[in-house]
Structure to design on (152 residues):
């Protein structure tokens, strides 16, 4: 069972610059076809200060930082036992190439269901830009399958 002492724990902040090339790659990988998400000139023509970030870009960039994998290791959760249960986003401001974002995440809750066969880790994140403005709030639910646990 995952120790609930981790509830309330803040993860190390992750800071990264939103790069044009990375946004283009992400847009193509996710099937984005709108030109402003793939081309700087089209973005400027559409009224953006640079290429805008697609909605789920920040979530993917945070995964690249590896803090989630470090957390799972500390919680002694085998990577092969996790499922992505849910993701929620609340957007407060657009993100564009050139922005520098800082993601601060907290373990909001840990609980079990089905007599421990399933455990849930709830992670809340706040994302601020280089001006200190909150651009995004996110909540992710990580489901941990414990196949060795059986209901009594």
């Amino acid at each position: 069972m995952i120790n609930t002492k981790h509830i309330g724990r803040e993860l190390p902040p992750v800071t990264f610059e939103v790069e044009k090339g990375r946004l283009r790659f992400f847009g193509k990988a996710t099937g984005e076809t709108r030109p402003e998400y793939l081309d700087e000139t089209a973005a400027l023509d559409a009224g953006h200060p640079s290429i805008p970030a697609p909605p789920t870009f920040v979530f993917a960039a945070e995964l690249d930082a590896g803090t989630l994998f470090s957390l799972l290791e500390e919680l002694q959760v085998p990577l092969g036992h996790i499922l992505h249960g849910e993701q929620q986003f609340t957007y407060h401001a657009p993100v564009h190439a050139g922005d520098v974002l800082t993601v601060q995440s907290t373990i909001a809750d840990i609980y079990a269901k089905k007599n421990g066969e399933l455990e849930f880790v709830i992670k809340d994140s706040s994302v601020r830009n280089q001006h200190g403005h909150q651009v995004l709030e996110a909540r992710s639910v990580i489901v941990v399958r414990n196949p060795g646990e059986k209901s009594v």
